[in-house]
Amino acid sequence: MFVLRARIALNIKSVEHEITEEKFLADKNGLLRNLNPVYEKIPVLIHGDRPICESLIIVQYIDEVWASRPAILPCDPYDRAMARFWAVYIDDKWIPSVRAILLSEGEEAKKAALEDAIQGLILLEEAFTKSSKGKKFFGGDKIGYLDIALGCFLEWMRVTQKIANVNLIDESKTPNLFKWAQDFCADDAVKDVLPQTDKLLEFAKFYAVELKGSME
């Protein structure tokens, strides 16, 4: 899902690019280790002969390098700081709560994880109200930094809902995010890069087994 952030940002800027895929759980002795020796994780953006790592940093880099094209980060310093704040919240707090829904053992643990994830979305609903200023996206009229940070996980949320039989983005609890999700997925920069839910569902089941095994 983190790779989608870079791909969407490149699409917004209309930057031609090539994609090199890395096999999941592959032996990381080759290109990936050379390009990202600290974390050994995707995505990595190679611009010229220089690698840039970590998805949110890549998005910021793309925005700065191709600055003459549609802006991704807000122009106002305060709005830019808030977008970065909530993006960090998504990665550090909210995503682990969604992951915990899949990994939790027992109904009580799953219920607690679900509640954490929903409360996080309620906070993001409030952030959307302030950031969007009545428009379609966190970034206003067009997709911006925070839209990319959260939107790349929409298909993952749908998969989580199917596997765990839960509901995350609810029209009654988070009506603005519910409508935002529809607009985000329909955007030209997004619709052709989102993974198919069924294929992602297959991967999610495999990933959950592998992750649980690594935690034992």
Q: Which shape, going by the Cα principal axes?
A: globular
Report helical residue fraction: 55-70%
What name is given to the CATH topology of the largest domain? Answer: Glutathione S-transferase Yfyf (Class Pi), Chain A, domain 2
Low-confidence stretches: none
User: Helical region count?
Assistant: 9
What fraction of residues sit in β-strands? under 5%
Reading off the top of the CATH hierarchy, the class of the largest domain is best stated as Mainly Alpha
SSE string: HHEEHHHHHHH
The strand line-up of the biggest sheet is 1-2
- Report the strand count: 2
Based on the structure given, which CATH architecture of the largest domain is correct?
Up-down Bundle
The biggest sheet, with number of strands, parallel, antiparallel or mixed sense and barrel status, is:
2 strands, antiparallel
- Gyration radius over CA: 17 Å
